[in-house]
Design a protein that fits this description.
Helix content: 40-55%
Strand order of the largest sheet: 3-2-1-4-5-6
Number of domains: 2
CATH class of the largest domain: Alpha Beta
Structural class: alpha/beta
Number of strands: 8
Strand content: 5-15%
CATH topology of the largest domain: Rossmann fold
Shape: elongated
Order of helices and strands: EHHHHHEHEHEHEHEHHHEEH
Number of helices: 13
């Protein structure tokens, strides 16, 4: 399935499996949070800055640090996408980002595409199950140098205009969440492109009127054949042109090429199909001039027998009408 994205005014992007590998979240972020969890919980159990995270958990989990830790481990193992858990993950990941323990390994085509779309006037928003705080941490520490030094990072937050999560707009599997995004952006849904690796999310966005594309990256789940026909597949953002400016460029490219010589000929009316045929074309110029001096030939009327006779003058016709009236 092919779809035209050239008149897109805004791009809404998923993160995991779309901008960076799924393995980064499952093999780096999740384990780091679990490893840091016991020490953070026990050292900050009664601290004011940890209280807002602890108080969001169910009451039974707030009774002891052990109960709290066990509940977090269970949620991590089941990859439950619930707001209070996602907020805590962002809190635990912050130290790892800032210390240089890790940075976000974006796919190579992502940063050039984001910069290109931004330059073309396209708005860029992020919509992830992870909290807005966690999203900003990830975008603030992007590893673009492909080196072993995780501290060599780039802050891409300025490229993003809006951040959406399950708290401020709702679940990603519900079409009403995308309705809300369209309203907050003040952009018609038909001019918003949603990119994700999750088919159910794409179906919800499509129901809300968004343009959608299924992003296929190394390590993502296999796409069923019927879904390959239902959605446009993007394996890279290279060559993906967004923005109304690109729509105009596409129209200009499709228009017929009219060179300067053609335009001059059209202006002078030299195309035979654009001007009436010249009855004197090919005649001797002197003959044409003599014919013009004699003036147009007078028309002759035919008699009933088919013989030609001179045309009556205006006075003769008037006299004839008077005789008939008498």
């Amino acid at each position: 399935m092919s779809q035209d994205f050239s008149n897109t005014r805004h791009a809404v992007l998923d993160i995991e499996g779309t901008l960076c590998p799924i393995s980064f979240v499952k093999e780096t972020l999740f384990p780091y949070a679990i490893k840091a969890l016991p020490g953070v919980v026990r050292s900050k159990w009664d601290s004011p800055d940890f209280e807002k995270y602890k108080s969001a958990f169910p009451k039974e989990c707030q009774e002891t640090p052990e109960n709290f830790i066990e509940h977090v481990k269970d949620l991590t193992e089941r990859n439950v996408k619930i707001a209070y858990f996602k907020d805590l993950q962002g809190y635990l990941w912050e130290d790892g980002y800032k210390s240089g323990a890790y940075s976000a390994p974006f796919f190579e085509d992502v940063v050039p595409a984001l910069e290109r779309w931004k330059q073309d006037g396209v708005g860029i928003s992020i919509y992830s199950s992870g909290s807005v705080f966690a999203q900003k941490l990830l975008f603030g520490h992007v590893n673009v140098n492909k080196t072993e030094d995780s501290r060599a990072t780039l802050d891409l937050q300025p490229l993003v205009s809006e951040w959406f999560d399950t708290v401020n707009v709702g679940l990603k599997l519900e079409s009403t969440s995308y309705d809300k995004i369209s309203g907050l952006l003040e952009v018609p849904p038909t001019q918003i492109l949603f990119l994700s690796d999750n088919i159910t999310e794409l179906e919800a966005a499509k129901k809300a009127g968004f343009k959608v594309a299924l992003v296929v990256r190394p390590g993502n789940d296999e796409v069923p054949d019927d879904k390959k026909r239902e959605f446009q597949i993007l394996k890279s953002f290279d060559g993906v042109a967004l923005g109304q400016g690109n729509a105009q460029k596409k129209q200009e490219k499709q228009a017929p090429d009219v060179n300067e010589e053609t335009m001059t000929e059209q202006a002078n009316g030299r195309f035979s199909h654009n001007r009436p045929a010249d009855k004197n074309e090919g005649k001797d110029p002197e003959a044409v001039e003599a014919e013009a001096e004699r003036g147009p030939a007078k028309k002759k009327q035919k008699t009933g027998k088919g013989k030609a006779m001179p045309e009556k003058s205006q006075s003769q016709r008037r006299s004839h009408r008077l005789q008939q009236s008498n």
